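Appendix B. Chain record.
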Amino acid sequence: MPTINLGQVRPVYRGSWNSADMYVTYDFVIYNGSAYLALKDVPPNYEPSSQNEYWVLFGAKGEPGADGTPGEKGDRGPALSHRWDGTFLSIQNPDGTFPDQGVNLQGPAVPLSNSVTSTSETDAASSLAVKIAYDAAQSKLPQTGGVMTGSLVVKNMLDLISAAPATEQELGLFMIDKNDAIMGGHDFVHNINNIIASQMYARNSNGLIASLGTYVEADGTRYTLSSHNLIITSDVEIGRLYADNVRLITFSGTKGSPGLTMRYSPDTGELYLDGRAVHGKADTAVYADNAGTLGGKAESALSVAFASEAQNSYGLKGMDMIIAKQTYTLPGYGTWKYMFLVATNNQWLDMVIGEDPGGTTFFPTQMGWPADAFMDGIAFRSA
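Structure tokens predicted for this chain:
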């Protein structure tokens, strides 16, 4: 009996669509959640949603349904059994056996270093390195301040005390405000002329500095310099002025209560008391003819002129000037208070204040100053 092959006459489910497969008429597939039916034989790579010539939507994807009722919580299963073999961890199999070898949980070996300055990214710090770093941190003062029980040393690695540096060296301790403006400090300088200086100073907002420095040179020359008045005590001030190329030394009370001011110039020999000239210029070589004598020696004309009035006011019995003297001897009678500066033609060296019997001799080399130093000052008889 003859037969006729009608081909596929009912839909055949082929599962999810696969781009590599060929499909025949009445095959249906699932694509993106929807069912598509092949209208004729479909070559590979013909997507159901974009090839309407080959595919027809057979069943659209529905919206997700509501969640079902949660089931009851099951019993807790048995805990996994494990064991360690050194750094190897083994987990028990479901049949109760253990694997021949577990998992090694030890990481790679890391070298240890005792260095506290190492920058290695692979070495680990040893206990010794940690202890060294800890001790160093404990010995540091915190930035908020603290108490030191030992000396503080400022070391200049570019300098030697025995030789002049090629460039001036300066290190110090400075006080700054919150904006890093310097308000004062204590600095140390070694200059190219081999002069070593230590200086304290204070600075105001206008940049004006008041300083007091001590200096020493390789040849033994020593001196103290001040940027302002030489000496100020609670009630007495000794100052220095420089006017019309003339050096002036002033003696007065302090600011606010100066009293009578005495001014003396070692350059001109002029002496003023409260603005009035006490004498013109001291005659240091010749004694006055009519000055009278004390101890067989005539007083200087200056002493007599001053003694007649001013000395009575201060209870003194004589005065003598010390002008450019490299050797000076107090008058040979009584007791004298004196004050004089030691200097060279180039610099101030020292100030000497004291009281000694008449006849005492002074000279700069006796005090450790160079041979070309001289003395300028004044002496008052006190007894």
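Further analysis of this model is presented in Appendix C.
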